[in-house]
Write the structure tokens for this entry.
Amino acid sequence: MEVSSKENTHFFSNNTILPVDRSSFKSESSASKEKQSCCGGIKIFLGALSFVYFAKALSGSYLKSTITQLERRFDIPSSLVGVIDGSFEIGNLLIIILVSYFGAKLHRPRIIGAGCLIMSAGTFLIAMPQFFMGRYRYERFPSTTNSTVSLSPCLQDKSQTPLSVLEKSQTKINAGCEKEAGSSMWIYVLLGNLLRGIGETPIQPLGIAYIDDYAIEENAALYIGCVQTVAIIGPIFGFLLGSLCAKLYVDIGFVDLDSVTISPKDMQWVGAWWLGYLIAGVISVLAGIPFWFLPRHLPKPESRKDSSTSSEHSKFIIEENKDQRTSSWQQAKLAEMAKDFLPSLKNLFGNPVYILYLCASIIQFNALIGMVTYKPKYIEQQYGQTSSKTNFVIGLINIPAVAFGMFSGGLIMKKFRIGVLGAAKLSLGSSFFGYLLLLSLFAMGCENSDVAGLTVSYHGTRPMTDYEPALFSECNSGCSCSKNDWDPICGEDGVTYVSACLAGCQASSGSGKSTVFFNCSCVGTSESSQSSSAVVGPCQKGNECPKMFLYFLVISVITSYTLSVGGTPGYILLLRCIKPHLKSFALGIYTLAIRVLAGIPAPVYFGVAIDTTCLKWGSKRCGGRGACRLYDSSALRYVYLGLTLVLGTVSVFFSVAVLWVLRKRSSPQDETLSANGERGACGTKSRKDNFVNSDQLIQSTYWPEKETRL
């Protein structure tokens, strides 16, 4: 267009028909139109990318909120749920290199749109087992579901039970065994989460690079900040959606809810976990639609057309030049880049600050990822809260505290113009005080619920030996009970009994949730010889537990804020202590290490450790161990908080080492060496030179799973 404008100007000037000013007016008007179309296009892309960030953060956080629901629905241990959770990182790692390299050469908006479709397909796949597994079956004595048949929970003689009832019960068990393959459908959840990881891969690198390429330079940081802000909102809605779905029964719309005999407070309760995945999948589909109509390229702003340093895309992606350079030159360039790979890697790992900070980050992310993954389970088991209330609290209180902490860290860095050494101190201080506050949570736990035969004996005293044989006592010795059942009832004495049979109950009245058991020989044996009654469901935790839960929430919010304050300073420390030409490579290694060494293994070994605190395992219909029904509260507290605190303490030691190395480098001799280029990019002089570039780059970098690791 500029060429034609020049030709027209030349033509009219030779013929002296029109003044030159008119052609310049045309060029100015065309430039203003181009600027308007550029701004309009980039803003549309910004809005679409923000919505995608919201969608992926929502689905990721919703998965965290359904951890306990998945355990109970598929009868699997926490360690296996940890594998499912880590499959997202595996899917992301499978194609991140291909997407990062080839994606920049192709139609980036459409690749992001395709990623959204894959992400939504994975989300829908997670929900699919609900429609093929049949209805959810929980353990309940037959008399509690049918008021017309009166059965004795304590089956002294099976001949007392009507034959038709026994036949129906056996038929149900056989039918359950035939459908036992349905219990392996957790594999579809794993594959769906794997697909989610694959679909999410192109969103961050291609989306941020697209904004950086076509946005006006002074607006790029603002646009990227808007995207990250929207990404923080996603987990809030994800956990609130989890809270809503956890209130609804898993088979809502398929069964008569009046026939359901368990409540959300029961350990066997499973909410409508699948409903949230359907909603998240629809949102992902809608988020991907605009990208199919966006152009491959937008007109670049005038300020960037002649800039050689306008974007990372122009620096690191080899494109066809206007003069069509030969393929031999490109091969030589690639060979030169490959030859420079090992020296760059050696240079990077020879930087002690980078290595120490990388180790500190890996260990700290192990602690944070494990803690956040099982935080809903910890609150439910430790304080006796429902899944719905737990997700509501996390979404409405904890995540805003994390977002505010991250913002505060960046604000402090800007307001006080903190350098590398100050950033290291701020990062270390936030970690130290955060884990110090975490230490106080050890004193804010609840005691074990009184469960006869598990945490207390039938005579009210704590058992001193193995708990399983203690399920049977003299008071229920005449009953034909199974130790594998879990159908808790609450006795008048405030003690929970594993089942009505093990409580020695001889009769029952009512049906469903209103069932009352009478003549229970084990209830009240520690106080009197008279038999007592019991009601369906476990007893509530102690009177002090609600107060402890309130204290836990307050300390948890303060801890989340304190730990988050150090996130931004620590990341800037990482950027400013690396030679400028190695920053992208260093960030790639950092992201890869966090995903492989923290994102994948942390949920697994945290789950294995939590499984060791289980007191009562559920049983599958055809044998085999199912999901845990009851945890040892004290052991769970020490394992969950202890493992987090040990990992956090180790990361603090590495952070101290980082600070020590930086202090050593800040001596006058080392400043001179740094100025001469012999000691890397941590010197005072290079800090000033790289300040602007680092601040611009920090906006476009990615903290692995920042949206869901809150």
